[in-house]
Fold each of these.
Amino acid sequence: MGKSFRNSKFFGFMILAVMVLFFYAVFKFLSPSNFGSPANLFSYFQSSIIYSVGGCGLYFIVVMGLFDFAVGANIVLSSIVGVILSEKFGYAGFIVGCLGCGTLIGIIIGMLYNRLNVPSMIVTVGIMLILESVAVFAAGGVKQTLAPELRFFSGAPGNIILAFLAFALMWFILNYTRIGTYCNAIGSNEFTAKNMGIDVKKYKLIGFALLHFFVGIMAILTVSYGTTMTALTGMSTMSRNFQPLMGTFFGVAFRKYGNPISAIVIGEFIIAIIFNGFVALGAPTTIQNVVTGAALLAIVTLTARGGRGSVIK
Amino acid sequence: MSVLLKAEHIDKRFGITHAVNDVSIDVSAGEIRALIGENGSGKSTFCQMLCGIYTIGGGTFTLDGQVVNVKNQVEANKLGVSIIVQEMGTLSGLTVAENIFLGHEEPFMSHGIKNTRAMIREGQKLLDAYGFNSIRAGAMIDSYNFEDRKLVEIVKATYMKPKILIVDETTTALSQNGRLELYKIMDSVKADGRSVIFISHDLNEILTHCDTISILRDGEYIDTVKASEIDEDGLKRLMVGREIGSAYYRTDYGKAISPEVVLSVKNVTVPGQIENISFDLHRGEILGFGGLSECGMHEVGKAVFGASLDRSGTVTLSDGTAINDIPSAVKHSIAYASKDRDNESIILNESIRNNIVLPSLDDLAESHLLKAGKLNHFAQEYAEKMQTKMQGIHQLVSDLSGGNKQKVVLARWLGKGSDILVLDSPTRGIDVKVKQAIYALMQELTAQGKSIIMISEEIPELLGMSDRILIMKDGKINGEFMRSESLSEEDLIAKMV
């Protein structure tokens, strides 16, 4: 195989397709009756695209070498704000509430990160704790339920349309604006990027704002899918960070093939297949964390592992 | 010729270091001006102020009648100043076209939307025009090797037709073909009535390709001379401030090599790098390894030091001890100085002291405890022995010039008392004064019975310093030469190509 083929988009796509087929075949073989019917696959896909949207948002900051622990907390808060506003303003309130709250939190995180000059991980852990408490106040300690007449995004085609609009937006930003180029440049070498006249602080702020705009979309899909949202404290939103992040890892690992978005979407679908495959095998619910952790390690090892002798930190 | 660039009283301090001290230089239009000096003489700092990498400490740059005081390279580009740097200047994760136009996307933007296809088309047009057709503008830059990426950087720095092009020690990163391309571009800049500032330690290259030469020493301006009116010795004298004469290389010939073998390499293969390499290293010998840059000679150094992956074959000491990994190499008195000094030999963000004591901590510990005073004394002793130019042993290595970094590397192994030294490109990017000091040290060490494997891309260095030379080609040893006055560069080249 030629070097150019091995670097092509097609080759990257082929690897992902082989992974999908492999995991599908394994679980179909082990559990032929409970796993993998067309209806099941469609269901896995619908749940995976919710995380894919978050994965797309996270890509903007992960590629710059930053991290965000407040994603889960913002999903909860934005969902609650959206549901509360939907009670007065219908769909407009729901959508604007989720997107507006999400984006505003992103801007605040970006500004704090730039202003405090401390690692993004520390800033976002602090913000996560604050957001969890704000969400409890906003919800008034009550489970927030989305009205039945506002559940267009709870299933197909609404959820798919919205998710694909988000993917299209990400594709547009990466390929047709400066933002994608500059985020990659900052991640590659921040000092050189500065010397190229790139306003690094501005683009980090934009990165956080974009991430949380996508988190706002994820909040719409999440609360529509589950129909309710409960505010919890004690870092319980932390677990919501990792599933979208796994898609981002796929995106970062496959960006060398030129299209991280398909890698994020297919990567999340692979994780959904693995998770549902174990469920079909009758593994207990708690297996989710084991599977999530194992899948994360396996994926990163297979796709993003450094060459032999390379320095890994 | 009219003056294109006027630098007046340029000054820069880093803490107590006076890096550039009141330097005034005029560069004429249509001129290739070399800027030379020892490591740490201030030439790179001078240029980096001109192109916005450093802020100007004092004085004024005037380019074509306009004062230049820029904050970054893009602003410098807009005023007509471009630079090609020594190390990697392209950014991973971007396409070739995005790298070429980074910071200059405006022609491809319309209402905030980037015309990616037009950018790639324009990038490819430029690459084709430069003759770099094999590089694809739409491909990720990561899919190209160091040299191709350097060629992309050359396009990036020159496509806007800068009034002043700065070439900062770039040629060491390029093969002969790449160098020829760069020289052609420099000539075309000159022919257009624009100017080049060329920084290099290769005096022969400077005399061949430059019109005039400005010399800096310890941050101060010394003189400007015409290339046609001076020779290498004259330049060395101006750079160093004293005569660098015949003692530059060894002058002894006919010295018998000791029959005692201290290290034996048998049938060593590293897949894709070297194949079936066998040789013996003798006590007190300088064994030179030469060849074209991709011939595998650099891997030989790593293989001897136990740093190669998937190595087969054996590396054994005279007592039969096998060297298969780095810890056993260090334990058995083998030292290694990599060609990639900044990434593989020194810890940039650590102090000179910590770099020097690193492999000797076990020896310096008392009951497993380290005493700061003892470490300081040890580091001070060997840093001074190597005449390292420093503010103190607690200074960060990242603040040092290339030559002084190399002195720290050598001080480390000197302190460790290593008996076998593997020195890969020991004088790469190093000025003549430090070169002379390193050559003198090598002779001193071999006189003490220590043995050296010297891997070098510089043929005069191989001829001047080695007792025996092994020439490599395509991963194999292709020729062996004993030290001799009659041995010529042509003899070695004939075995390299």
Note: The mean pLDDT of chain A is 87.
Amino acid sequence: MTELADPDVRAVSPARSRYQSDEFVARLRRRYAAEQRFKYAGMAAIGLASLMLVVLLGSIISQGYTAFQQTSIALDITFDAAEIDPQGTRNPEVLAQANYAKLIRDSLGTVFPEATSRADRRTLSDLLSSGAPFELAMMVRDDPSLVGTTKRVWLTASDDVDQFMKGFIPRNVAETERRVNDVQVAAIDRLASKDSIEKSFNTTLFTAGDSREPELAGIWGAIVGSFMTLAITMALAVPIGVSAAIYLEEFAPKRWWTDLIEVNINNLAAVPSIVFGLLGLAVFLNFFGMPRSAPVVGGVVLALMTLPIIIIATRAALKAVPPSIREAALGIGASPLQTVLHHVLPLAMPGILTGTIIGMAHALGETAPLLMIGMVAFIVDIPGGFTDSATVLPVQIYMWADSPERAFTERTSAAIMILLGFLVLMNGLAVFLRKKFERRW
Amino acid sequence: MQLTVLLVVLAVLAVVGYHLGRSRAANAVGGRIVQLHSVPAYYGAYVALWAGLPAFLLFVAWGVSEGWLVMQMVLAGLPDRLTSVDAQGIALLKADLLNLAHGLNTGRQPDPAVVAGAEHYNALRQLGDWAVLGFGSALAVAGLWYARERISPRMRARNQVERVINIVLIGCSLVAILTTVGIVLSLVFEAARFFMAVNPLEFLFGLHWSPQMAIRADQVGSSGSFGAVPLFAGTLLITVIAMLVAVPVGLMAAIFMSEYATPRMRTALKPILEVLAGIPTVVYGFFAALTMAPFVRRIGDAVGLDVSSESALAAGVVMGVMIIPFVSSLSDDVINAVPQSLRDGSYGLGATKSETIKLVVMPAALPGIVAAVMLAVSRAIGETMIVTMAAGLSANLTANPLEAVTTVTTQIATLLVGDQEFDSPKTLSAFGLGLVLFIVTLTLNMIALRVVQKYREKYD
């Protein structure tokens, strides 16, 4: 449009026709200005969408990157044999039931000898996570020879200390307004001066199940749950979806009932996902009595939900295979089924795979129907089977987002980053497949 | 366990059957396979189907009916004093039995008869699983042997195999219908139970929503009220806000992409919209609750407005952002379907590009764009996570976007999360709301899809 953009046409000819009258030129200028405005409005729309995307991702990354680090505190723990294993049997049950919290208290007592009052000692114990005694128990279980020795051990700090170390709890406000009191701040400073407190990579986040304590909570349970749910979804939705698409695209006669199926599939694709949750609750849980919170039910519900996506994508892929391929196969004596299975389907495979992966990515991010079938339960254990109680990554995000602790906010953002990472991976694979195998006929 | 074994046995027998059938067919004609009716692989598939399919159907039938069947047998074996109670008591009894059978603690001292029943339940299930394993394996072997015996050069193996495959394919296509039927039946049945307790007119037109139920009959505020109008109004408010964001931005983005952008710009800009479309709704919900809502509140405070921390505005705007790619991709399709000749005609008359778009392309594409907006509205109405996380729970009847409102989907989600008892109107009201939601979105989708289809045919 640039050649039209300069409306100064009067210079072209000295004789002024009606097309060079002032009104005409002014009108033309207005029209071109409107043209520019319209174009800028379009750019602004794209810009706004991009801005929102940047703000969205930016806010999540800036809130969440700190969750990949976790503060821990080093203490010289004396694994007192008289305390842990008075009989000296080294019986694992005795070792597991010993009072490890006392070991930590004793150790803190030697580091901070000035803290003698009960309140001060309790405040100091709160520096460490309530899971710290279990960490000691695990160490002793794995290596009973520790009993009777003294060792410098890194223990997980509590979430408040962690947030303080990351600078989210300001130092210079009144003591009553921060979750770390003055005694604790002084203790943290003392530990820091002795290099006994530091931030390191947060492995708990990737290996643990859910927990009420932010510093002990991880997403591994949710990842395993998501994986199991998706496995069920894939095992059901892909064969059924591809078969249905093959039938509808290649074999179905044009009758009222095939039209009905088509309309049905298009409508199902637009049914709100929460309605599928209601279906799962009423039919699978209440009618068939399948277990609540189980990946198997979640997988079935998500399979029903992704089925239309896969059918529509597969039909598009089959449609893109030119009829000449079918005619050639039929011409040399292949049956219709052989034609489809031996020739059309392999050629449509990249498109089917792409559609399937996109459908699976959709299922991975879905939350609402899974809330309905009880996958929102608080589950600490890593699920071991398809009928165990489990949760999935998006539902874990939903639950953590509800938790008031600041430390959960950063973990929620971290979990979102991981979920988005999986989605990027899947969509990247789909794009790669499309690019690599795309065929123009 | 036994059922997994059965599946493995069936798979092995099917593979064995395939090879047996193929070699048997080839041997029957002494290796001159030209004399066979079908290629040998079809004879193999024929035997494999006979070996695997009947037993597999048995497996599926057992898997679906096992729990119910065994439960009925256990109930029949329990003493009358336990089973001669109302439906609710039976449900409780069943739950106790299941808990005990799975080794869970029921929280109270169980009746010895119930414990015996639970043991009976486990024993019957074990027995049933073993029986199905044995019977299924026998069925598979018998099928394999029968099919192998039937193989002859004249047998039309291909036709038979293809007929079975055809039936399987039809069965798969019917799953979509079954899903719809399942949705409709489950919604209608549970909603009917709800409407037996609550007058449908009161539900649809009542102005007060507070779905708590009393634990004791004489409790204060014992009867919940189920007037859903505040929910409909809240849904409408958030949807309108979302559309005010999504329609202009999405439509202008689509126009820019299809009419102005060079192919290189398009390949660069398209992923932005695709990424927006691919972000899970729970992430938008988190963003709305933790970033957008405080932001809106701060802005409100700055200009002296009292903004709720769960304002409809925050949820609506974020939902609008979520729907932008949806509107833009649908409108993109519609705009591209307008024939180039219309544009060329307009340019020939001296119209500028924007005039062509506004006066020629848009009117021609209008039905499609209206349909796209309808689909977007249906999506906004059905969207759950953003509103569950960012909109409120209190049912205010207000048109002020700065106040907290609640929506139909939020209520469904909150009513059904956690433990439910399936006889209280409180739980069942979620299905009433679900039915309304389903009908509304279905109607919108039906009309929109119709319009899109009709419109596509017109220009093809």
Note: The first strand of chain A starts at residue 69 and ends at 78.
